[in-house]
Amino acid sequence: MAFVSLVQPEPGIPQQIAAQARSARPTNVPAERAKSHLPCESATALVGMGALAAARKSRRCKVARGSVAAARPTVDDWMVKPLESQDLIAQSRPAHWVLRTTDVKANLRFFTKIFGMKVLRHEEFEKPCAITCNGEFETPWSKTMIGYGPEDEGYCLELTYNYGVSDYEPGTGLTHIAVAVADPEEALKTAADMGYAVDADIITGPDGYNFRVLPKEDEDDDPFRYIAMKVGDLDKAARFYCETCGMDETDAVPDCPMFSEGAKVVRYPQQLPLVLFLDKDSAPPQITQWEGRHAIAIPGKALRAIYKRIIDSHGADGSVLHHIR
């Protein structure tokens, strides 16, 4: 289980590389730094296995004023193409996972020195995100995108830093992120030398997130191999991703002891797999702000089809956090 964001991608996202990401808030953040470098996008956020939340930014990337009911068109106003349309589903992909950080510099050292990632973009915001990108915190915040290549082509991580927040209660839904490197033994040794806990091929990094180190067999392979998530109901979780989000279930369960009780793998064609698994010996997953959220890029018409499907099945009240506007 996890917080999930569905976003409508737009081509030509500029890749602005930051010289460094600061973990201490500057005394005066220029207004232009608080503006997004991304083109305007519509975003839909889903919570858990059955709650859809959606929000759309205006053309100037500012949240529309007024009540949700007044701002939201009815679903019948949209020309909705069926979600099953393969040409749309083929364009969908997991985009990034949002991690909450209490120390940006420590995270940058961790990801660059151990996994060889690089900073893709850094932004500062004076006000909280209107669609809770920085969680439910009424604070200025920053985000740093980190990964291996352009955000509009490959998977990456988003490090969000809320000024004044020094601790997050860990959750138990996001279990680990698997990353392949050229020399796993060297990566594990580097992590241990830096003071991070290492258990077999799992490294516990800053803020308690776990990363599994795997060998990279082909230079052209995406280093991000899979995301492991503990769920309370395996069948329900798989239906959410397959029937609602349009993913396919596959039989390729990664070799990992924690998946022995039962696991299902869902993915878009040739994209990052999500491993959903049960742990019968422990309590159901506890979802906290620490879990962040998972962003999945989906073409706009397919996104609206998902939104309509949730509204038709569950209604607009209770399950929707941020409506499409």
Automatic annotation (TrEMBL):
It comes from Symbiodinium necroappetens. The gene is glod-4. Pfam families: Glyoxalase. This is Glod-4 protein. Gene3D superfamilies: 2,3-Dihydroxybiphenyl 1,2-Dioxygenase, domain 1 (3.10.180.10). It comes from the Eukaryota. PROSITE patterns: VOC. Signal peptide: none annotated. PANTHER family: GLYOXALASE DOMAIN-CONTAINING PROTEIN 4 (PTHR46466:SF1). Residues 93-229 form the VOC domain.
